[in-house]
Each structure stands twice: as C-alpha cells, then as structure tokens.
C-alpha cells in the first residue's frame, strides 16, 4: 500500500514537473513570437513612413522648387520615381475616377487654353496621365516588386550625384540658395529605396 501511494506521488510530481516545463517553454516561445512580431511591424512601419516621406519629398522637388531644378537636374526623372514610390492609397485614388477627372481637365486646358496652362503644371499633369493610363504590368506588378524599388534607388543615386556635381561639391550643395532643402529632399529620395531593399532581402 505504501509503495503504491509513493509511486502515485512520484507520478504526480513528474507530471506536474513536465507541465511546468511545458508552460515555461510556451512562455519563452510566446516572448520570441512577440519580439519578432514587434520587429517586423516596426520595420514595416519604417518602410511605409519612409515611402510617404520620399513621395512628398519628390513632389516638393517637382512642384515647389522647379525653377531652381530646371537648370541643374533632369526633373523628368522624378515622374517615374513618384510613380513607383507613391503610397498605395494615393496611387489607387489617382488611378480611379479622381485621377481620370484631373487628367481630363489637364488635357482640355492644355489643348484649348494653352496660355492659361502654367508651365509648372506640365510635369504633375504628365504624372497624373501616367498613373491613369499605365498598364497593370507597371501599375501593379512592377510597383510592388523589388525591381521598382531598385529603379527608385538608381534614380535617387543619379539625382544626388547630379545635384552635388552641379553645386560644385557636397559642402556647396548645402550652402547655395535652396541648397539645404533640395539636398535633404534628394537624400530622402535615396533613403526610402535603400531601406526597402534591405528589408526585402532580410
């Protein structure tokens, strides 16, 4: 009788030890899962934040500072950059009815009222037209792939190099008129695709 109760106590003790060990393993696994999820969400948030920042920097360089850029850099390269890096919410908005109406009004103004159509609106108008009429191969497949991000990186590197060369060196690119805003804008263009490529290959 004493042997049976001793064996029962031993079995219960082993069972409770196994359960405690399993609970510890589960809590460790849950902590690891939580840490990895937080890291991934943080990285994804960083990528989308930089995407928004780079898009607005490119739009700023395209519209607000066009007079300074015309002589220095091929502003037309900002159009494919914005096309490939524009956040999905804005891209789908401009690809829908809103974009069609904007493109329609822009074409009508350009055709029938060319004197009333300002020069600085040509590039934004071309961007809207490109977004509206682009085939789905470019609008969906290329935009969401690493190839589109790589194209953005090449454009940003080229623009940064041209801007520094036109300013007469990296230090001068910060000291000339509108130099700081242009240089920071181009660096933001460079940071987003570089970060997105790193995240893609992690």
Structure description:
The structure is a single chain. The protein is mainly alpha-helical and 202 residues long. It folds into two domains: 1-43; 52-201, no CATH class. It has ten helices and no strands.
Summarize the structure.
This protein has 202 residues and is mainly α. The chain has helices at residues 2-63, 66-69, 78-85, 88-95, 97-112, 122-133, 136-142, 146-167, 172-175, 179-200. The protein folds into two domains: 1-43; 52-201, no CATH class.
Keywords:
2 domains; mainly alpha; 0% strand
Element layout with pairings:
Layout: H1 2-63, H2 66-69, H3 78-85, H4 88-95, H5 97-112, H6 122-133, H7 136-142, H8 146-167, H9 172-175, H10 179-200
Helix pairs in contact: 1-3, 1-10, 3-6, 3-8, 5-6, 8-10
Pfam family, one: WCOR413
Main location: membrane
Membrane topology: Multi-pass membrane protein
User: Which structural category fits the helices and strands?
Assistant: mainly alpha
- Main sheet? none
Number of strands: 0
**Shape designation:** elongated
SSE string, helix = H, strand = E?
HHHHHHHHHH
How many structural domains does the protein architecture include? 2
Number of helices: 10
The first-to-last residue Cα distance is 62 Å
């Amino acid at each position: 009788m004493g042997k049976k109760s001793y064996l029962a106590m031993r079995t219960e003790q082993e069972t409770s030890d196994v359960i405690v060990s399993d609970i510890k393993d589960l809590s460790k696994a849950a902590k690891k899962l939580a840490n990895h999820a937080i890291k991934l969400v943080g990285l994804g948030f960083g990528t989308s934040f930089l995407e928004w920042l780079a898009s607005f920097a490119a739009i700023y360089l395209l519209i607000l500072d066009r007079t300074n850029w015309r002589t220095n850099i091929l502003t037309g390269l900002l159009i494919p950059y914005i096309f490939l890096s524009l956040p999905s919410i804005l891209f789908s908005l401009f690809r829908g009815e809103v974009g069609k109406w904007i493109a329609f009004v822009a074409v009508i103004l350009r055709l029938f009222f060319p004197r009333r159509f300002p020069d600085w609106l040509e590039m934004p108008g071309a961007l809207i037209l490109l977004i509206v009429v682009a085939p789905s191969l470019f609008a969906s497949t290329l935009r969401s792939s690493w190839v589109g991000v790589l194209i953005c990186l090449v454009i940003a590197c080229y623009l940064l190099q041209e801007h520094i060369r036109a300013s007469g060196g990296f230090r001068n690119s910060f000291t000339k008129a509108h130099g700081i805003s242009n240089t920071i804008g181009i660096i933001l263009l460079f940071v987003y695709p570089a970060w997105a490529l790193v995240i893609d290959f992690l």
